[in-house]
Amino acid sequence: MAAKILIVDDNPNVLRLLNITLTKSGQDYQIIEAENGEKAYELANKEKPDLIISDVMMPQMDGIELCWMIRENSEIPLVPFIFLTSFDDPEMEIRGFRAGADEYLSKPIDRKLLLQRVEELLARTRNLKKIEDTGEKQKGFSGDLHDLSLVEVAQMLNLNKKTGLLTIKGKVNGKIYFKNGQLWHAQSDHAQGEEAMYELVALDEGTFQFQSQEVEMERNIQNSTMNVIMEACRIMDEAKHKQESGSEE
Question: How many CB atoms are closer than 10 A to CB 215?
């Protein structure tokens, strides 16, 4: 079945370029277009796309608000979301990630990079779908950190308001407890609380297992779940950039 991609931009030339880029990628994509955030939100709930690519600055409803509405008030809160922007603005990027964006790419669009990110996020969606289906049939699920990062698993548990224990085994072992989707308690081989969480999210090899259960642990993560996930994303990005820089040398 063709992956359904919603592209959003108030500039018709950008929409045309995105459509051509995706259509000629060699992949089986069904493209849906919207010229502003309000229309995009309406189409997202109607068409339930597998991925959204949106400009940030738009009239009526900008990309930040669209992303927030998708995450908080739509029927597809876990859909991958890519922002496109003409500005190099770190504060805007932070706002975008806080709204729930998965990726932030600069204009003019790097065709190769865009298509790479699209395929990565669609693959992640397929893995998450398998896990969700398993979790609905059973009281837990398991997976490999090579296929899904700990941040992505945490986001899924948060958005689905799950309660239970996430056990991580790798170079560092740990346990993360969730209560109604909120990060509640974390511990690793070397740390407790948020520090344990940040140590564990750096793992790119190992396994995870989630089991639904009541949580009676004392809370040791006081910061909001979204802020912790944001900081975890920053740590993962830094680790990724270091790894890429090292491979180029």
Answer: 15
| Domains of the chain with CATH codes | 3-126 (3.40.50.2300), 139-248 (no CATH)
- The string of DSSP letters for 46-87 reads HH--SEEEEESS-SSS-HHHHHHHHHHHSS-TT--EEEEESS
How far, in Å, are 82, 144, 173, 217 from residue 231 at the CA level? 19, 22, 20, 23
pTM: 0.67
Mapping DSSP to helix (H, G, I), strand (E, B) and coil, where does residue 143 land? strand
What's the CA gap between 119 and 53, in Å, rounded?
13
Asked if 129 and 141 touch (Cβ cutoff 8 Å), the reply is no
- Reported as a single tens digit per residue, the pLDDT across 105-130 is 888 889 999 999 999 999 888 877 77
145 to 22, 57, 87, 174, 202: CA distances (angstroms) = 28, 34, 33, 13, 10
Beta-strand pair 140-144/207-212: antiparallel
Q: Which tens digits make up the pLDDT trace of 36-47?
A: 999 999 999 999
Neighbours of 194 (CB within 10 A): 18
Check: CB of residue 60 under 8 Å from CB of residue 135.
no
Residue type, 185: H
Where do we find the tokens 């990110």? 117
